[in-house]
Amino acid sequence: MSSISVPREETTVPAGEVLRYNFKERLCHWLNGAAYVYCLLTGLAFDTPYLFWLASIFGGGATARFWHPWSGLVFFGATLWMHALWKPDMAPIPEDREWNRNIQYYVTNQDDRVPPQGRFNAGQKTFYWAMFYSAIVLLATGLIMWFPEKMPRDMHWLLTVVTFIHSATALITIGAFIIHIYMGVFMVPGGLRGMTTGHVPERWAKFHHPLWYRKIRSQR
Amino acid sequence: MPSDNLEIKAISGHPGTVPGANASRDYDVCKLVDTTTCIGCKACEVACLEWNGYEFRETTFDNTYQTMPETAWNYWNLIKFNEHENEDGTLSWLMRKDQCMHCADPGCLMACPADGAIVQYANGIVDFNQEHCIGCQYCLTGCPFNIPKFNSATKKVFKCTLCSDRVGAGLEPACIKSCPTGCLHFGSKDDMKALAEQRADQLRKTTSHKDAGVYDPAGVGGTHVIYVLHDAKNPEKYGGLPANPTVPSMVRVWKRPLKWLGNFAMAFGILGAALHYLRFGPKTIDDKKSDGSNRETGERL
């Protein structure tokens, strides 16, 4: 048999490749992503008249308004699940500081000058924590925005504040999301495949996440 | 007015100017509520329900003469009662007809994200089109008068239309028609403003209401419903009429600078990613250069 099968994992890893994300992690990631993208596209429809046409893709403005908060709950739930799965891997390590200091070499593809990184590099961790804290803010403000009719008259000022914070926080996540998609799909070939199939070539792991690669190789 | 577009603009074979040209005014309509002659009969409440086709709903008794605490999605016109104790210990029984103020600078319209759900007519009426309403209730956030009300069954927001259907046909609003004391007036904004100032002046000169005045708040660009108040310096005591209503500053910042900042940031973010791809391209795996070598230790796997 040419493939290495990993016990207790549903993912079959071919020879020359290593397991990067198990089934649970992939499911969590894509559930999170799908719910986020739904909230993103319907939210953009509510944000600017130039993108209100996006609402028609999802059955019109009223339908989009109905489902947006529910999708937000799914997004938040998936974020909590992801936190349970990845919190140890997302914790900062001393090497992160150096990576951040040398980020220009990473951005300009001078990878031989980039300090070696673990399972997630410092940039991925920044993205993760930005989305994690944003999700908390979006949930807190979004719950209030879900039922404005329940808000007593003398608390209406709070509606104006949470609506502003909800929009501003969503914009922060959009900035992070643009970079995330660009990195995963275009800038780092193999990244998207890793998240769909769950495995990556050994040389990919060795090149992009050497500390992690060393660790899993020593565990094998 | 429906006849506006039949005003004569040019006449064939006619010497000189067009007779009557520019003589007609552009009407922006206005409702004048004189709180000093309101007797609180609530005929306007009933007329509003009748014209707009709503059943008379159950009232909420809270030891006042008021029908319910505030307007509802199917109850757009409400007389607010307040037994106000004056400084000298006497009582003033204040009644104010509460409804949409039809602001010239409407916060509901600014906050609304749904194309066509709120319109402002040239005559000043601000109207909700429920078929385009998405039920987000941002209009509640923008309104300084607590007017838009949500129907949780249909998920649509409703409010006073200033009887745009009647006014469009040259009729006065239903509430005006029903008022027995004549405390409600309807006409052009200029005429109503003049009438209101005249009445306030009369009150100041001939009664003890030395602070009588007209409520037409500048913070929302003026309104198309104006009040004559006995005490224009304290509008709050008339059932919570705000002294200086404005569209909330958070709504203004959200709808203008933040929205445009966001739009540009998104566009430039995508553009930036595309330019980065053109300039630097994707990362290629160079086994020789970086096979996990650690710059600090020089250790190789």
What does this structure look like?
The complex is a heterodimer of chains A (about 220) and B (about 300). Chain A is mainly alpha-helical and about 220 residues long. Helix content of chain A is about 70%, strand content about 5%. Chain A has helices at about 25-45, 55, 60-90, 95-100, 105, 120-145, 155-185, 190-195, 200-210, 210-220, and strands at about 5, 10-15, 15-20, 200. In chain A, the strands form 2 sheets. Chain A has a two-stranded antiparallel sheet. The two termini of chain A are about 20 Å apart. By secondary structure, chain B is α+β, with helices and mostly antiparallel strands. Chain B is built from 7 helices and 10 strands. In chain B, the strands form 4 sheets. Chain B has a 4-stranded mixed β-sheet with strand order 8-1-10-9. A two-stranded antiparallel ribbon of chain B has the order 2-3. In chain B, strands 4-5 form a two-stranded antiparallel ribbon. The chains are: A mainly alpha (about 220), B alpha+beta (about 300). Chains A and B meet through helix 1, helix 3, helix 7, helix 9 and helix 10 of A and helix 3 and helix 7 of B.
User: Biggest interface pair, residues each?
Assistant: A-B, 55 and 52 residues
- Over the alpha carbons, how many angstroms does the gyration radius of chain A reach? 20 Å
Query: What Rg of chain B do the Cα atoms give?
Result: 28 Å
Residue-averaged pLDDT of chain A: 93
Oligomer: heterodimer
Overall structural class of chain B, as computed from helix and strand content, comes to alpha+beta
Estimated share of beta-strand residues of chain B: 15-25%
Low-confidence stretches of chain B: 290-301
From N to C, what is the helix and strand string of chain B?
EHEEHEEHEEHHEHEEH
Q: How many strand elements of chain A?
A: 4
What can be said about the biggest beta sheet of chain B?
4 strands, mixed
